[in-house]
Amino acid sequence: xxxxxDYLCVKSGLLCNRCQxxxxxxxxxxxxIKVMETLLDLEESQFKELKESTYxxxxxxxxxxxxxLVGSGPGMTIQKWVKVAKALQDKLGMKVRIMEKTNNIKSxxxxxxxxxxxxxxxxxxxxxxxxxxVIRVSRNETRLLPADTLVxxxxxxxxxDTRVKIRVE
Length: 169
Description:
Elements: H1 7-12, H2 17-24, H3 30-45, E1 54-61, E2 64-70, H4 78-92, E3 95-100, H5 105-113, E4 118-125, E5 131-137, H6 149-160, E6 163-168
Parallel strand pairs: 2-3, 5-6
Antiparallel strand pairs: 1-2, 4-5
């Protein structure tokens, strides 16, 4: 797996100057070092297919962990990603969801909110010139959401650096 920090730094826990500067600037959070180490351990022991994936970022919201990856290898199926998430969940002690990094709000929402279906995404232009996205979900499918709507809104807002609301219709 390709990671933003040096492999040796993550494995040893001692960061070189370059890796330490990434942590100091906030590009990599402290908890992400443990996540990267766990992913590398899983790659070595169980999931050789992770070698083709690229780690982008991990986002922690309450007791939920979202891992964003860029591209996955040809051997990685949805079932494999579920197994990787389950293994991470056991090792890290928090709920884990693995998503592919994308700039499209709708595709991120579909990945994050599944198995609930996304009816649509509305763009709201606010008077101050900023943008807010409203993700519409059917009232019948709110029980299928993987977490509370406030947690999901916070996660999507962090992923895309913009305000996101989830509206149940």
